[in-house]
């Protein structure tokens, strides 16, 4: 597999594959990434129709720089294999696997893509949304370090987690937070990106604002969204603040000085700065689009 390029994924918008009006709106939206959904937003009786709609969408769309992802149905379902075969033909950036429960689920999708001779830069993303996925999180995320497994990103599926565990969904997400933090930790251990779950009440932008800030502070790379009105808040919350960008640029400039070329640690503005801070600064500057 090629080296995984770092992408900004502050705002990741789900769009049901059969919502033609919403699909037509996408070029005008400022989200970083779009997930066209074949799974839970499509009724069982319309899965084949939705697959055709996705195919048509990719055949006719004009690329606009957004990262494009297709969420297929679970490979264990009657639709999964056909979805995967169709999705690979569309040449999206990634295919999102729902209801992943074990590392084997990801490897099975990867094997099927290899058999279909999918291109090397087609990545897999995995939803973490079942109790079994939570228990197998370490093994799933570890696939991120095996480039041949294609895994690039984990996505929290908070609706399914609430449903399958029976926890109470509270506005402050207090019963979800421990699992969300585990997801962030596992993703980092596997060198993967990680996206926070959706906020269902798309009219309550105050609640969304809090969730975005909380998600950023917990270490998520971005938030999954369901409505265009949610995009700006996510973009703002997951963009580095001007002061952070300034600090990162100062660290980059300091280590670029010839005097510091062979130093592991330097003093900058009265603070100790090590090369690990340079790595952190470089990642932040990519997030800032610099
Ligand atoms: C939630 C919605 C059904 C609401 O739709 P609607 O009532 O049409 O909203 P509005 O009238 O406010 O829409 C205003 C305009 O915006 C367009 N629109 C709406 N949603 C989207 C969208 N997602 N992407 C692009 N454009 C969108 C409307 O077409 C209107 O356009 P116009 O009339 O021209 O002004 C709807 O928002 C929706 O379906 N959202 C996505 C739902 C979805 O994909 N669900 C599945 C993924 S979430 C999930 O499964 C999480 C996870 O698995 C878990 O377990 O947690
Ligand atoms: Mg789900």
UniProtKB/TrEMBL annotation:
Please give the organism. Aquamicrobium aerolatum DSM 21857
User: Which cofactors does it use?
Assistant: Mg(2+)
Q: Which residues bind Mg(2+)?
A: 129, 160
The organism's place on the tree of life at top rank: Bacteria
User: Where does the chain bind substrate?
Assistant: 71, 129
UniProt KW keywords: Lyase, Magnesium, Metal-binding
GO molecular function terms attached to this record: lyase activity; magnesium ion binding
What is the name attached to this protein's record? Citrate lyase subunit beta / citryl-CoA lyase
- InterPro entries recorded for this chain? Aldolase/citrate-lyase_domain, Citrate_lyase_beta/mcl1/mcl2, Pyrv/PenolPyrv_kinase-like_dom, Pyrv_kinase-like_dom_sf
Write down the Pfam families for this protein, in alphabetical order: HpcH_HpaI
GO BP field: oxaloacetate metabolic process
Name the family: Belongs to the HpcH/HpaI aldolase family.
- Domain HpcH/HpaI aldolase/citrate lyase: where? 10-228
């Amino acid at each position: 597999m090629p080296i995984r390029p770092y992408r900004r994924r502050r705002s990741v918008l789900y769009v049901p594959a059969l919502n033609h009006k919403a699909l037509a709106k996408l070029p005008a939206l400022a989200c970083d990434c779009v997930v066209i959904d074949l799974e839970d937003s499509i009724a069982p009786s319309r899965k084949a129709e939705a697959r055709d709609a996705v195919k048509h969408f990719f055949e006719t769309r004009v690329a606009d720089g957004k990262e494009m992802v297709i969420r297929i149905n679970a490979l264990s379902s009657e639709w999964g294999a056909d979805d995967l075969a169709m999705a690979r033909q569309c040449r999206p950036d990634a295919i999102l696997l729902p209801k992943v429960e074990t590392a084997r689920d990801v490897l099975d999708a990867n094997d099927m893509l290899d058999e279909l001779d999918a291109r090397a830069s087609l990545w897999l993303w995995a939803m973490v949304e079942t109790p079994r996925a939570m228990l197998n999180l370490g093994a799933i995320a570890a696939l991120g370090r095996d480039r041949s497994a294609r895994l690039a990103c984990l996505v929290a599926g908070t609706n399914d987690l609430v449903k399958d565990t029976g926890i109470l969904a509270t506005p402050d997400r207090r019963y979800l937070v421990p699992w969300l933090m585990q997801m962030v930790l596992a993703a980092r251990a596997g060198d993967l990106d990680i996206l926070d779950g959706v906020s269902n009440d798309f009219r309550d932008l105050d609640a969304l604002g809090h969730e975005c800030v909380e998600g950023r502070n917990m270490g998520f790379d971005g938030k999954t969204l369901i409505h265009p009105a949610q995009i700006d808040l996510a973009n703002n919350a997951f963009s580095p603040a001007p002061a952070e960008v300034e600090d990162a640029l100062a660290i980059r400039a300091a280590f670029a000085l010839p005097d510091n070329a062979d130093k592991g640690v330097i003093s900058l503005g009265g603070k100790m700065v090590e090369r690990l801070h340079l790595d952190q600064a470089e990642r932040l500057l990519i997030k800032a689009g610099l």
